[in-house]
Structures are given as C-alpha cells and as structure tokens.
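Hi R.,

As promised on Friday, here is the backbone we talked about, encoded as structure tokens. Could you run it through your design pipeline when you get a chance and send me back a sequence?
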C-alpha cells in the first residue's frame, strides 16, 4: 500500500506497466539513505535521569528544557522528543505533500509504540501525532512521545 498520489509515478515505470513500491525503492533508493532512515523508522532511545529521549539528546538539552518550561515533565519530554515529519527530507522537497505525510504518520506511530514498549516495558509511553489545521504549514505535522507517568507529575 502507498499514498494514492504516488500511483501515477509508479505506473509510469517499466514502459507504463508500473512497478511495486518495493521495486521502485530498489531502483530509486540507496543504502546511505536506508542507513539514515533507521534514525526515523527504528530510532534509538535512551534514559537520561527520569526521561526517555532520542539518542542525540544530551543532559544539557534536558536541563535547558527544564529551566525554560518549569512545568510538568510531560511537556519537556514531549518537546525533547518531537519530530517534524517534513524534516525527514528538506522541507522544500517538491514531493512533500500532506497526503504523503498523513500516510506516513500512523505508521511511524506504530513503530514508535512498538519500539518504546519493547525497549522500556516498565516505562509505558504515549505516542502522539499532531495534524495541523488545513492552512498551516506542512512542517507542523509532528510525532512525539512521553512517558505515561509524566502525565500525572
């Protein structure tokens, strides 16, 4: 399955007989990107003190958010872990459409839920998707997560 707006592109391949999405990525993709996509499609998480964060987040990042937010930990953890879907590729990419982002988001949510539950079974997390209002920028589509225990903190 793939976003409907890709049908024309996929059907144009192979002298108009079309190709599957899997065949298309075999022709168009590359292993450098595949390695890079692992940071989005099977991200590495770690525990920093009481937070679960993405691999690149440092204790200095956590401290800066704590200082700025001074609110419930859920807010800091959610901000530290957010990802703008448009940032997976440069935001100005002509293939960037709301339909493609909307297709990808629930899949990413499933991946994050599975990964977090597997890696941190004793620290249940909430994975949340932000679908912006129609007139907002594609950059406003986001995924984030936080630990359920921080909802009450």
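Update: got your reply. Pasting your designed sequence below so it's all in one thread:
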């Amino acid at each position: 399955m793939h976003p409907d707006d890709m049908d024309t592109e996929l059907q144009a391949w192979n002298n108009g007989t079309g190709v599957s999405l899997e065949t298309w990525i075999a022709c168009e993709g590359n292993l450098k990107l595949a390695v890079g996509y692992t940071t989005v499609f099977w991200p590495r998480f770690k525990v920093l003190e009481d937070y679960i964060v993405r691999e690149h987040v440092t204790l200095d990042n956590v401290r800066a958010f704590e200082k700025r937010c001074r609110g419930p930990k859920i807010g800091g953890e959610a901000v530290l872990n957010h990802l703008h879907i448009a940032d997976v590729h440069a935001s100005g990419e002509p293939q960037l459409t709301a339909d493609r982002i909307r297709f990808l988001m629930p899949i990413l949510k499933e991946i994050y839920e599975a990964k977090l539950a597997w890696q941190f079974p004793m620290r249940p997390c909430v994975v949340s998707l932000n679908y912006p209002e129609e007139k907002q920028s594609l950059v406003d589509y986001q995924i984030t997560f936080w630990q359920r225990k921080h909802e009450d903190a």
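One thing I noticed while checking it: The mean pLDDT is 86.

Thanks again,
M.
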